[in-house]
Amino acid sequence: MSLHKLSPNSFRAREVFDCITINGGCAISLPNAPAIGLNRILGLGTVNDLDKAYDWMQGRAGNRYLQLNLEAVADDVRSWVSTKGLHEHGPGWSKLTLDASLHSIDMPVRVSTRTVRAAEAPQFGSMMCSGFSFPPTLSAFWSAIVGKEGWLCFFALDGETPVGTGAIYVSGSYAWLGGGTTVPEFRNRGAQKALIAARINEGIANGVSTFVVETEAPSIGRPNISYENLRKIGFRRAYDRKNFKL
To answer: Coil, strand, or helix at residue 226?
Structure first.
């Protein structure tokens, strides 16, 4: 919801980027983005709310998804999913959390990091699009969060050259980590580990005690390095969300 609010009006109009909020949850649509995270119904757990979001999504273009923690919803919601003929798409996502004391995370890293400067917002947006295989026309979407209230954006560096990105969104004592990507030739050198440490330490300095992140749920024959790395740092699985294609 914050990403939508902060995006430029011209960008919203050009990309037909829209979002509605429903009882604390939302439905969001950015058709040119391949990511599920920007084309989904999220945070809804009643049939009435899901009906509203589903009807709204029917008027959107591109791929559209519903994310649900099936272990936490009532039987009528499961019946609703079945009645709509929705089928699971992919392995789903795991939500992980980290409870941090008011001390920095002692995590040895080999890569330096720093916050993104305001003048570097276009570069940050461009790197994010490249890393996530977004069309270059969507760079303004990511650029818009640099320096905005609640957000902190980071670069991982090779010398003075940015080679990786990461973002943190802080709300009270909670923080969400996302936007982690590294340019291909510098992957597997510790950039994301360094960015996770930098964001956690920055969050703690700003009063955060609970960090959350999501990644693809591991499955038999399909291990997830990101999931395992987060677990090694101290993150613990909270629940899984199934992805249903609308």
So the answer is: helix
Q: What is the token pair recorded at 211?
A: 């960090």
| Pair of tokens at residue 30 | 């950015």
Torsion sign over Cα 175, 93, 65, 16: positive
Q: What is the pLDDT of residues 153-190, one digit of tens each?
A: 999 998 999 999 999 999 999 999 999 999 888 888 88
Token pair 């003048």 is at which residue? 119
How many residues appear in the chain? 246
For 84-113, what is each residue's pLDDT tens digit? 999 999 889 999 999 987 566 666 677 899
Sign of CA dihedral 6, 12, 16, 20: positive
Amino acid of residue 124:
F
Q: What's CA 165's distance to the chain center, in Å?
A: 13
3-state secondary structure of 64: coil
